[in-house]
Amino acid sequence: MKKHHITLNVNGDDYDALVEPQQSLLDVLRDTLMLTGTKEGCATGDCGACSVIVDGVLQCACLMLGMEAEGVRVETIEGMAQGGDLHPLQKAFLTHNGLQCGICTPGVLVAAKALLERNPDPTETEVRYWLAGNLCRCTGYDKLIQSVLIAAKEMRGA
Amino acid sequence: MAHDILENSGFAADRKLNIVGTSPIKHDGWDKVTGAAKFSSDIIQPGMLVGKLLRSPHPHAVIKSIDTSEAEKLPGVKAVVTGADFPRIKEGTPYGDMTRMVMAQEKVYHEGHPVAAVAATSESIAKRALKLIKVEYEALPHVIDPVAAMQPDAPILHSYMRTKGVKPGDPKVSADRPSNVVERYELGVGDVDAGFREADVIIERSFDTKPMHQGYIEPQSCVASCSEEGEIELWCCTQAPFVYRDRLSEILKVDGSKIKVQQSELGGGFGGKTAFYAEPVAIQLARKARRPVKITFTRSEVFRGTGPVSGTHSRIKIGCRKDGVITAAEAELVFQTGPYSGSAFTNAPQAMFTRYDLKNVRTVSYEVVSNRPKVASFRAPCVPQVVFGVEGIISELADRIGMDQIDFRRKNAMADGARTIYAETFGKIGFIETLEAAKACDHYRSPVPKGQGRGISTGFWFNRGGETSSTLNVAPDGSVTITIGTADVAGSRISISMMVAEELGIPVDKVRAVLADTHQLGFNRVTAGSRTTFSQGVVLVDCARKVIKEMAGRAARIWNVPEEGVEFSNGSFRPAGANVGEFQPLTIADIAKKTTSTEGAIAARSDMNVTGAGPGFGCHIVDVAVDEETGAVEIKRYTVVEDAGKAIHPLQVEGQFQGGAVQGIGWALNEEYIFGEDGKMQNPGFLDYRMPVASDVPNIDTVIVEVPNPKHPFGLRGVGEVPVVPTMAAIANAIGDCIGVRPQSLPMSPPRLLQLIKERGAAK
Fold it and tell me: What CATH number does the domain located at A88-155 have?
């Protein structure tokens, strides 16, 4: 199938990519740019494992066509730690066992980051509803939600 | 090899622990929070092709012919395989059935059964090639429900199949004609009829449960390659790398020494990744294409092509006296297994009543084939489904005789030394302590909030040991690598590293656990049945003790004293007494540094068939509210109480309790396979197959009970299976308490509850 050229910025770096018309942004990230931290759990927008931030908006990368990504700025899990410093969310997930197998973790962290950027002081209920688009089958959500609340508190300097 | 650690684990209740019982950061966690961890679908090989499977649209059909010639001609297609590319092993044998499950040969047995596969230079070319494959089917009548499949006029899946274990006088099965019933299994003890005569109250009910999917978020993915000399390398997400290696060797007729299985990080398994699906197909494609081939399932393929758990129908009858003693129990159980045997259904009669000390029990169980995906293991395989019924009747009996729910269970509880229906005599067990902890916890002592209902249920799982082979290597700087061949399904590497660090007296960050490929170690049994942290603890503590002994010998030679003159404590070797002489203590690192100048590498291995797993018991308490307008259930409060023996990493143990309970909540309230009249699954996606999301559940409170297992160096019992066993029963009991009628079938979804509420109204 004929490929089309796009340019996009991922985590601050500019990339060129050749994409087939049916390929998703997720395919471009994983298969073309080899940024495999963003996961595919369903490819239908139901599990949130591929959560990324596109031009400041939380999205499922599987629901956006690669060709629609021309000129966008994408933030993925690979860009979350700054230099050698983990994001407070990443630290909280490690310290409070917010992850078990880890497959949903990149999507959960990206989605949680998007939440805390718009609401630095969410209630537990707000966190649960915001993350309702991110399936986790291991943790029962308890420690995952607690990790987000602990990170939020730390980021507020509370 | 039997080893003295099995006879005497060295477990000491008063041992002071520095690391075990704390919750350090998981070493594998760092890569998991940054996206660097390599899961199966993240594996990339040079020259890699994309493999795709063609699946049957029919639930049951004869394959008349397959024409792949057009697909092969498509530019970019490098290989096409069908059932003809696999050795033809007799159907009705384990390896014959295993082969046919991954690629159909004579017939297809369920919608989604693979019939052909292609490898191409891109996914889009592979998909186009699938459309060019012509398969001619002769559709056959199909049967989905196991009870329907047991009827004399049901379509027969396998004309050669005769029911095993038939006994005269059972009208449901016969051994002299083809049948869909794989096996009839009878298990019992005592005199059930006399037991029921002694009872003051007898309750008998029928129950049914639907198949649910393990629901791991990582779809199966694998990359296979083959060298010019025929050596196969397979990367995949698996709970059983060594079992895959051995089964691949059997079904592909390749020496096991030429197959290397390397497990990737595992994105959830829960039992579902104990059997292979695409892996043999990727290998055959790679051998034909002479290039690496990657196959990754879509979510729809995961639902339609990989194992859910067994759906069940059961009839259960229990009787008790007014004083609370259960006098007899009886059960008839039907398990659906998919097209081939493999449900592990005998677990159910063995475990369903085990925790109650019953003298008179009779069970008859049937495993039945039908035209749906073959089932796979799931936490405590086949047990939660039947405990759903048992604990419903137990709760009802307690109410009928006016006894407290926990007191009634306590009255009948198994104690140390109890003998099970399957003829095992328990050693030290913690069921009574678990019930006492449940009764003492804040949740149980709090009144049930107005408008809500409360349910209690208990559960048991055997816990397992089994073949385990590991190595421990000490680097010259004193840091330690342990190489393990079991899978890490949710963080076992850290718990295993902690036990090694504790034994060696070094910080846990000085220990690294590495996931081995199958060339590196002896056979390791599947990671399942809550066996891994237990077994690895036994095996690697044995390795650590061997290394300590070796190092003590080297310290003795450095000091030029007899070996008995050296003792080890807190990570240092010291003179055992003043008469030995004055020497500065030597740490593990001090001796490791002298590796070259002493006798070379310091290493140990241990290969055992580990026994001594301590049985696990749990008790769940749940409060629910039911919206009588919509039939929706809200879980208001949930507490898991379970005996862990010893919680090596308490946060991990709590996570197992919480995760198991929430999977059970999904099974209880929403999850089911829905089939149309056409035999096709109608909900093969996360939108229509609805697993719990964060906003569906509350925090799950946990109480870790610790009744040490004396057969383990740190006293641990497996904790992974029990948390799902009581869940559906506890929720059903809570719903019953809330709306006045206890649901007897799963899932307890809004339409079903509305129907129950309506019938309740009509009965009034």
Answer: 1.10.150.120
pTM beyond cutoff 0.95: yes
| Cα-based distances in Å from B761 to B206, B313, B740, B743, B754 | 21, 26, 10, 15, 11
Distance between first and last Cα of chain B: 66
pLDDT in tens, B194-250: 999 999 999 999 999 999 999 999 999 999 999 999 999 999 999 999 999 999 999
* Band (A1; pLDDT cuts 50, 70, 90): confident
Which CATH entry fits the domain spanning B382-463+614-763: 3.10.20.30, 3.90.930.1, 3.30.365.10, 3.40.309.10? Answer: 3.30.365.10
Which residues on A lie below 8 Å from B38 (Cβ)? 36
For range B640-652, the mean pLDDT: 98
Residue B33 token pair: 């929070």
Domain boundaries, chain B: 4-37+465-610, 382-463+614-763
Of A126, A104, A99, A103, residue with least CA distance to A115: A126
Q: Which CATH superfamily is domain A4-79 in?
A: Beta-grasp domain (3.10.20.30)
One-letter identity of residue B645: G
Query: Does the distance separating the beta carbons of A104 and B35 come in below 8 Å?
Result: no
Higher pLDDT, B489 or B595: B489
A158/chain B closest Cα distance in angstroms:
23
The answer to whether the beta carbons of residues B504 and B588 sit under 8 Å apart is: yes
The confidence band for B764, taking pLDDT boundaries of 50, 70 and 90, is low
Cα–Cα distance for residue pair B263/B233, rounded to 1 Å: 11
CA B216/CA A49 separation, integer angstroms: 12
- Name B513's bridge partners: B482
Residues B181, B747, B60, CA angle at the centre, nearest 5°? 40
**With contact defined as beta carbons under 8 Å apart, do B296 and B220 qualify?**
yes
What is the third-level CATH fold of B4-37+465-610? Aldehyde Oxidoreductase; domain 4 (3.30.365)
Chain B positions in Cβ-Cβ contact with residue A100 (cut-off 8 Å): 490-491, 652, 655, 659
**Least CB-CB distance to A137: which of B215, B697, B700?**
B215
Beta carbons of A125 and B42 less than 8 Å apart:
no
Q: Do B29 and A94 touch (CB under 8 A)?
A: yes
Predicted interface score ipTM higher than 0.95: yes
Alpha-carbon distance A145 to nearest alpha carbon in chain B (angstroms): 8
Q: Using an 8 Å CB-CB cutoff, list chain B residues near A49.
A: 217
Domains B4-37+465-610 and B382-463+614-763 belong to one CATH topology: yes
Q: Which residue of A has its CA nearest to B665?
A: A140
Chain B nearest CA to A71, separation (Å): 24
Q: In chain B, which residues have their Cβ closer than 8 Å to the Cβ of A142?
A: 654-655, 658, 699-700
Q: Do B268 and A144 touch (CB under 8 A)?
A: no
CB contact under 8 A, B268 and A90: no
Residue identified by tokens 């917010």 is: A98
| Closest Cα in chain A, distance from residue B331 (Å) | 32
A36, A100, A105 ranked by CB distance to B655: nearest: A100
- Please, which contacts does B350-354 make with residues 24 or more away whose CB atoms are closer than 8 Å? B350/B187, B350/B420, B350/B421, B350/B422, B350/B462, B351/B380, B351/B383, B351/B387, B351/B460, B351/B461, B351/B462, B352/B383, B352/B386, B352/B387, B352/B390, B353/B329, B353/B390, B353/B421, B354/B414, B354/B420, B354/B421, B354/B422, B354/B460, B354/B615
Residues 6+ apart with CB under 8 A from B203: B317, B318, B319, B393, B396, B397, B400
Domain segments of chain A as ranges = 4-79, 88-155
The C-alpha of A79 sits at a distance from chain B's nearest C-alpha, in angstroms, of: 8
CB B716 within 8 A of CB B653: no
pLDDT digit string, tens, across residues B84-104: 999 999 999 999 999 999 999
